[in-house]
Amino acid sequence: MLDAIFWGVIQGLTEFLPVSSSGHLVLIPALFGRPGPDLATNAMLHLGTLGAVLMYYRSDIARMAKFDKPARRLITLILIGTVPAVTLGLLFEDKVEELISEPRKVAFMLIVTGIILLATTMLRLGDKQITDVQPRDAVLIGLAQASALIPGISRSGMTISAGLVRGLERIEAARFAFLLGIPVIAGAGLLQMVDALRLGEPIPATVWVGVVVAGLTGYAAIAILLRLLTRVGLAPFGVYCVAFGAIAMYVL
User: Fold this and answer.
1) Of 2, 48, 122, 165, whose CB count within 10 A is highest?
2) Is-contact 139 88, C-beta < 8 A?
3) What is the dihedral of CA 53, 55, 60, 64, to 10 degrees?
4) How many whole angstroms separate alpha carbon 225 and alpha carbon 230?
């Protein structure tokens, strides 16, 4: 049960804070000499983080469920932004899996994430709202999301950064990034579950504790990120990624 709680906290925090969940799931086991979560556990933990984002943005989800003209437009933009991650994920799945077994490369990519986050501090603050997002913006933000297929590259970090580059206000950039992440989080969990079933991996009963922990921690992580975004932007997370990545590269 302690393992389920531990990985639930890690998944919940790193899925939404721009510090790379995939990077932490590779580096923490490598640094501390402990096994990471198996496929079945990892897949189940995605249920928790999926629940967190659905709950936090439940008003947006409810508006999209009305399927009126504004809702259809937002759904279309999310679908457009999802295409790059799905396409590149299918094309380069084997390459991505190879990187998971190379912690030093993952640590380096975490440093890259940090540098990009720090670079956003040089951007002029935008004022665009989510209703101002155009299809070309969705494509570029979607490409940024696809880059997070590389372990160590943060999905939320890249999508929020891309939103800021496109002139979105900070909170709106995060809002679009998290709504855009819903299909990807759900899809990742589903694919891992299929792989786990194919390999015959059992789902331990204690993993449900991890699912709840991941959901609660993920919800808190979204709230923390949005508060910090309004005050200081992405810089603290950039510093963390560079520092943790550098330490991991040195130790490993």
Assistant:
1) 48
2) no
3) 90
4) 9
Distances (CA, A) of 159 to 54, 172, 179: 18, 11, 11
132 in any annotated domain: yes
122 inside domain: yes
Confidence of residue 33 (pLDDT cuts 50, 70, 90): confident
Which tokens go with 198?
């194919």
Closest by alpha carbon to 42, among 177, 185, 152, 144? 185
The confidence score (pLDDT) of residue 248 equals: 96
Q: Which of 138, 209, 215, 125 is nearest to 170 (CA)?
A: 125
> Considering the entire predicted model, what is its pTM?
0.94
Residue range 104-133: average pLDDT?
A: 95
pLDDT-based confidence at 36, cuts 50/70/90? confident
Buried b / exposed e over 179-216, threshold 16 CB at 10 Å, is bbbbbbbbebbeebbeebeeeebebbeebebbbbbbbb
Q: Domain range holding 243?
A: 2-92+118-251
* Short-list 246, 242, 248, 237, CA closest to 14: 237
* 176 within some domain: yes
Residue range 185-197, pLDDT digits in tens: 998 888 888 777 7
